[in-house]
């Protein structure tokens, strides 16, 4: 495993291109595009203001930079560095911007969610979508890029509009049986749209492409409801993370619950492996030490190192009791992710912030728990094999696969606190992001 040097970064804005050839990163108002393998700078673009969001087009030929404070989006071309495009939303303002699946249209959401403006890079034409709902996840594209669903709010009622992406024609418009719609997400096969309600109302609705209600699911009635949702890559399962610290999995045939995955504070099953991260202070051979030691030698000698040990069950995990009288309590399953081969599901229960739970979906059983020293900041599956990367805001990366578990210390001076991880599309490297820096970790094929 090899690591690049640290590079400057702002706003956690680092992205691999979809084709895996380039890596874009931002430093204030500058956009730097590098070769993903050598990290040599290919292009340097200067924007009008500090960049707050970047996104590659699906064909990796263009990159969008949004400056929400100024209401401006700038688009840069990798093939023609002299060409560029500026979209100014003016007094309407800007709160969100994204590419359409064809990589030739940009969708801008104006302030107060008054409308979504569809800008064409080819014809310079403009289309408008009215009444978009101000919610966490109100727009979703099918994986094949043919259709777009938009959540709308009119006359105090929720609606869904489905558009055909090649001409932006309205295909279907229907109301939903939600009190206050919170999010929408297509199944990977593009046949079913999942719609879920606000956390005050436990309700998941499943609609077909023509707007028919296929099924609705409700686990319980009065307490706080849904916190997170994830489709399996095969579209066979829909996992629902709830505030009651459970994950419920629905099947794609009857849309009924097939199992309920609990997250107790004590792991007692002997079939579950618990990997516990422990810190070790290195022993220093003072006879061989020259004073004052070099900076690199000192950092390697005196910094604590960590490794995984297998704990004997039963194991009690660190449980934090939520503060009941505050908004957004740290309770319930807030993170869900299926592995690319559909075999595993990784979850995080916010009451137990230092643990990652890995479930075997074939057996519908808990397989592994990773107990970390620090709070889990994020995790992401390798896109090519069942391998999970975890970060905890420290200078270490944690990798799990069915073969085992490893802790990797990122070399280098200074405090590099990794808060986000992004895999390369080949699974051969990872982008490690901190508040002010990033580096690339290169893995070898046979590594765990």
From TrEMBL:
Protein's name in the database: WRP73 protein
Family matches, as Pfam families: WD40 (PF00400)
UniProt-listed Gene3D superfamilies: YVTN repeat-like/Quinoprotein amine dehydrogenase
PANTHER family linked to this entry: WD REPEAT PROTEIN 8-RELATED (PTHR16220), WD REPEAT-CONTAINING PROTEIN WRAP73 (PTHR16220:SF0)
Lineage of origin: Eukaryota, Metazoa, Chordata, Craniata, Vertebrata
GO CC annotations, alphabetized: microtubule organizing center; MWP complex
Superkingdom of the organism of origin: Eukaryota
Record gene name: Wrap73
InterPro entries per record: Centrosome-WD_assoc, Quino_amine_DH_bsu, WD40/YVTN_repeat-like_dom_sf, WD40_rpt
């Amino acid at each position: 495993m090899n690591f690049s040097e640290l590079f400057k970064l702002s706003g956690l804005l680092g992205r691999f291109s979809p084709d895996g050839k380039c890596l874009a990163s931002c430093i204030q108002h500058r956009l730097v595009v590098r070769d993903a393998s050598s990290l040599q700078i290919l292009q340097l673009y200067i924007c009008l203001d500090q960049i707050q969001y970047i996104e590659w087009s699906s064909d990796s030929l263009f990159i969008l930079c949004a400056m929400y404070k100024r209401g401006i989006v700038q688009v840069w071309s990798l093939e023609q560095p002299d060409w560029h495009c500026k979209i100014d939303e003016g007094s309407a303002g800007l709160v969100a911007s994204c590419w359409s699946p064809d990589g030739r249209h940009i969708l801008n959401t104006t302030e107060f969610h008054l409308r979504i403006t569809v800008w064409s890079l080819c014809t310079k034409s403009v289309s408008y979508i009215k009444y978009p709902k101000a919610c966490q996840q109100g727009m979703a594209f099918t994986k094949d890029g043919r259709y777009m669903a938009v959540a709308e709010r009119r006359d105090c009622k929720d609606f869904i509009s489905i558009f055909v992406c090649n001409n932006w024609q309205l295909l279907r418009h229907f109301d939903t049986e939600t009190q206050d719609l919170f999010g929408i997400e297509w199944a990977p096969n593009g046949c079913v749209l999942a719609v879920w309600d606000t956390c005050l109302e436990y309700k998941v609705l499943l609609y077909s492409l023509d707007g028919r209600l296929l099924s609705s699911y409700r686990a319980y009635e009065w307490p706080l409801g849904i916190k997170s949702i994830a489709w399996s890559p095969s579209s066979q399962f829909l996992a629902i993370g709830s505030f009651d610290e459970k994950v419920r999995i629905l099947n794609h045939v009857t849309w009924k619950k097939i199992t309920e995955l609990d997250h107790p504070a004590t792991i007692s099953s002997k079939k579950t492996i618990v990997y516990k991260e422990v810190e070790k202070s290195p022993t220093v051979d003072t006879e061989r030490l020259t004073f004052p030691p070099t900076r690199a030698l000192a950092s390697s000698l005196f910094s604590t190192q960590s490794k995984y040990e297998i704990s004997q069950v039963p194991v009690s995990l660190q449980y934090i009791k939520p503060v009941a009288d505050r908004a957004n309590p740290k309770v319930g399953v807030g993170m869900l992710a299926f592995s690319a081969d559909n075999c595993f599901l990784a979850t995080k229960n916010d009451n137990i912030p230092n643990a990652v739970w890995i479930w075997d979906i074939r057996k519908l059983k808990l397989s592994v728990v990773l107990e970390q020293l620090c709070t889990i900041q994020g995790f992401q599956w390798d896109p090519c094999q069942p391998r999970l990367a975890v970060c905890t805001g420290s200078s270490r990366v944690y990798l799990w696969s069915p073969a085992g578990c490893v802790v990797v210390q990122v070399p280098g001076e200074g405090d590099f606190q990794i808060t986000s991880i992004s895999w390369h599309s080949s699974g051969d490297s990872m982008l490690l992001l901190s508040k002010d820096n990033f580096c690339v970790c290169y893995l070898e094929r046979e590594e765990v």
